[in-house]
Design a protein that fits this description.
Helix content is 11%, strand content 44%. By secondary structure, the protein is mostly beta strands.
């Protein structure tokens, strides 16, 4: 995307951004945009960061032009190592609500339509939603292991979050971690508010309209502050669920449409090494261990926080992206050799991957 004619910049299509679109504050500063401090605020994670009003900002993409208008300036680049890519800005509902947006995850294509003339003609299921504060909220049912009756939930649809998560109050009230057959506990993500912690496990299913998502891997947050400690909604449906559909977002008609793609029935899996990586370096080419789950293959092999990966099965780590590295570490039974450099020198360790949840 272009920002005030400069760029290109990498923007995230983020339905969880709410009522105003966002730009990394350092990007806004580099373009000489006027910024005014608003407040300390947050999102996922328990920290509060500076939110600024950025004036006279305009974005454009492939013939679409928005602005000039006010945007939120915030430190998005702090999340880059955890994404393994740059995050210069967020396209939120103030831009998307003027359009109908179709996200084809299978083909990697986003299509924008004029809302007034749009009529959905696909085979997907229409699901009514609530629009509140620019956020898309959907009523759903959660199926638990060992219980026949589902429980009701109100989820935020968030294209900017990778993994589906239940907020800490909802998880606690319904005892969700205790219903999961297997769990691991620790760092579950990193948002604008820093580290999020919780329990990784599964539920038997999540029903959204007529669509049943079976046996998904989910996070049960234990955050005591930030968005994941909010009591006004139950949790977030993230891209791990949404990528199994072509998704149409129609704010003007309070509707979304979900059309199953070829990956709909693919089993949900979690990392089988026990490592959370961040990607260091100018090109995010250097994986570094940021967290090790207790009782995991990585913990048993002696992997430590701060270890930098110098080779993966003899391959340069630069040949992996964050996404391909996650997939590589989800091969049950595979042996993976990691060459590592840390405070105690260099070491070569073998991990035997296994399911943790």
């Amino acid at each position: 995307m272009k920002l005030n004619g400069g760029g290109p910049f990498a923007f995230v299509l983020d339905t969880g951004a709410g009522g105003m679109w966002g730009v990394d504050q350092s990007v806004a500063d580099s373009l000489g945009l006027r910024s005014t401090f608003i407040a300390k605020a947050g999102g996922a994670g328990e920290e509060a960061v500076d939110f600024n009003r950025v004036d006279s900002a305009a974005v454009s993409i492939d013939g679409l032009y928005f602005g000039p208008s006010a945007a939120i300036g915030l430190p998005l680049h702090r999340m880059d190592p955890h994404w393994g890519k740059r995050k210069d800005g967020l396209v939120g509902s103030d831009l998307l609500s003027a359009l109908v947006t179709r996200i084809d995850y299978e083909k990697g294509i986003v299509t924008f339509h004029e809302a007034a003339a749009y009529e959905y003609r696909g085979p997907g299921a229409r699901v009514p939603v609530q629009i509140a504060g620019g956020f898309i909220l959907v009523e759903a049912q959660v199926l638990l292991y060992g219980k026949d009756a589902p429980i009701d939930a109100l989820f935020m649809i968030d294209t900017g979050v990778r993994q589906t998560v239940f907020n800490s109050p909802y998880s606690r009230v319904h005892g969700l971690p205790e219903q999961s057959p297997k769990t691991v506990t620790g760092v579950t993500g990193f948002g604008i508010g820093g580290v999020s912690r919780g329990v990784i496990g599964r539920v038997r299913g999540i029903r959204i309209g007529p669509c049943l998502i079976e046996n998904p891997v989910v996070s049960f947050s234990t955050d005591t502050a930030g968005a994941l400690a909010d009591t006004s909604f139950s949790g977030i449906i993230g891209a791990d669920v949404l990528e199994r559909f072509a998704v149409v977002l129609d704010y003007s008609r309070s509707s979304i449409f979900l059309d199953n793609n070829k990956s709909f029935g693919r089993p949900f899996e979690f990392d089988m090494s026990g490592i959370r990586f961040v990607m260091r370096g100018e090109r995010f080419e250097a994986p570094e261990v940021s967290f090790v789950f207790d009782g995991s293959p990585a913990a048993e092999a002696g992997v430590k926080v701060g270890d930098v990966v110098t080779a993966i099965d003899g391959r340069s780590p630069a040949s992996f992206t964050m996404e391909t590295l996650r997939t590589y570490m989800q091969r049950e039974g595979a042996a993976v050799r990691l060459d590592l450099k840390g405070g105690a020198g260099t070491k070569s360790l073998e991990l035997r991957l296994r399911k943790l949840v």
